[in-house]
Specification:
With 440 residues, the chain is α+β, with helices and mostly antiparallel strands. Helix content is 29%, strand content 42%. It contains eight helices and 19 strands. Residues 263-440 form the Lipid-binding serum glycoprotein C-terminal domain.
């Protein structure tokens, strides 16, 4: 019994590093089998373009008294009518072509005794079957990469039609020539696709940055954190999804959020974002000093200024008549990184800020009427507009209390409801218009 317990304990301890080392995804993208239908056309175009550029070596031979040379082979048309793109579990993608055709033309030189003849040959390959499997992985820098490719190509039959003065006489040579051409074409299809995938496509993937600037303040790291997970129904890619302050790019952020989960397969593409995705963005903007706002002069809504003047703050101003007609301002500064919470009911952002109510008498230093702590909770509505992720904030909970005295906090209670309404109507639209959240 003790031996069994020790074995279980050792197994658990040995598994802890791997469990702790698994980094949760900040962003997850799922492409379903329905999404492959959208990609199949582009894949088919790419394959057709690569096959049309196949170069074949010159072919020479002798059949009885005939000596022939075939060169300048050109593919004129590809008809990949029966093409399919699907997932291979734990591997990647499979592009399958069945019962298709290829039309090509090439030049001939034929010597029979003392007769020499040249001309063109129009040929068609029928029953073309190509089976190509791509293994997808994550490279060292976090980019998607084609690790290897397996390919199998087969042509069932090939026909040739001669042109020229002695075209009909040479028809019996067609069997010999088409057999050789079918063999050569079979040998060229897979190398062409291998080179296209491992060289051309991977070279293109290497040009895609995994860290880029969002704006002048922050950037984003969207590198893959592990190999794509492929099932029979989907391909899931886990991205780091971490924003960072451009002035402090080396500062690491640890992801303690729950890994985003996608359970559906009905649509073509799914995007899942964790709390870390938004929190890293909020933290980066906070460290960059963006969550500060000075509402003064024309930026101060008239209704908000009237509310401030006719309530508790107006009574303070009456104590100094020189301040009665002076302009008012609000200084808002977030004093800690905002926190995002994602539930099935939606996403919320909790924010705490210091609000200073100021009076600006002309020719004199600003006078602070009050310093308050504002605790607020926003509902965050996430949407995709074109290719841009947008987040719209809506103020839901609002609380203020004085930083100076408990008595002043009591005096601020009647202000909470109307001030919340004023902020919802005036300040929140200003926040949204500044794209402080939209940039995420």
């Amino acid at each position: 019994m003790i031996v069994c317990l020790l074995s279980v304990l050792l197994l658990f301890v040995s598994s802890v590093p791997s469990i702790m080392g698994a980094e949760p995804a900040g962003c997850k993208i799922r492409i379903t089998d329905k999404g492959l239908d959208m990609l199949k056309y582009e894949t088919q175009k790419f394959v057709e373009e690569e096959l049309s550029n196949i170069s074949m070596p010159e072919m020479q031979g002798k059949e009885g008294r005939f000596q022939y040379t075939i060169n300048d082979v050109k593919i004129t048309e590809l008809n990949l009518t029966h093409a399919d793109l699907r997932f291979i579990p734990e591997v990647g993608l499979l592009f399958d072509v069945q019962n298709s055709s290829i039309s090509l033309t090439f030049n001939r030189r034929i010597l029979y005794w003392f007769f020499y003849d040249t001309g063109n040959i129009n040929a068609s390959a029928e029953g073309v079957n190509i089976n190509t499997a791509l293994n997808l992985i994550r490279d060292e820098e976090g980019r998607l990469k084609i690790n290897n490719i397996s390919c199998d190509a087969n042509i069932d039959k090939m026909k040739a039609k001669f042109s020229g003065t002695l075209g009909r006489v040479y028809d019996f040579l067609g069997r010999v020539l088409t057999t050789g051409m079918r063999f050569l074409l079979n040998q060229q299809i897979c190398p062409a696709l291998n080179h296209a995938a491992l060289v051309h496509v991977n070279s293109l993937l290497e040009t895609i940055p995994v860290r880029t600037e969002v704006d002048q303040f922050i950037g984003i790291d969207y590198s893959l954190i592990d190999d794509p997970v492929v099932t029979a129904r989907s391909l899931d890619m886990n991205f780091r999804g971490m924003f960072f302050d451009l002035s402090q790019q080396s500062v690491p952020l640890v992801n303690y959020a729950v890994d985003p989960v996608i359970r559906e397969y009905d649509r073509m593409i799914y995007l899942a974002l964790s709390e870390f995705f938004f929190d890293s963005g909020m933290f980066s903007y906070y460290t960059a000093g963006i969550f500060q706002m000075h509402i003064v002069n024309e930026k101060m809504p008239k209704d908000l200024e009237m509310l401030l003047r006719t309530t508790y703050f107006g009574a303070i101003m009456m104590l100094n008549p020189a301040l009665v007609e002076a302009p008012m301002s609000l200084q808002l500064a977030v004093n800690s990184p905002p926190k995002t919470t994602i539930k099935t009911s939606g996403a919320t952002v909790t924010m705490t800020a210091i609000v200073k109510v100021m009076v600006l008498p002309p020719g004199q230093p600003p006078v602070q009427l009050s310093s308050m702590t504002m605790e607020s909770k926003f509902n965050a509505k996430v949407s995709m507009r074109e290719k841009r992720l947008c987040v719209h904030a809506d103020l839901r909970r609002f609380k203020i209390f004085s930083n100076q005295s408990a008595l002043e906090s009591l005096a601020l209670i009647p202000l909470q409801a109307p001030l919340k309404t004023m902020l919802q109507m005036s300040v929140v639209p200003m926040i949204n218009s500044k794209n402080l959240i939209h940039q995420l």
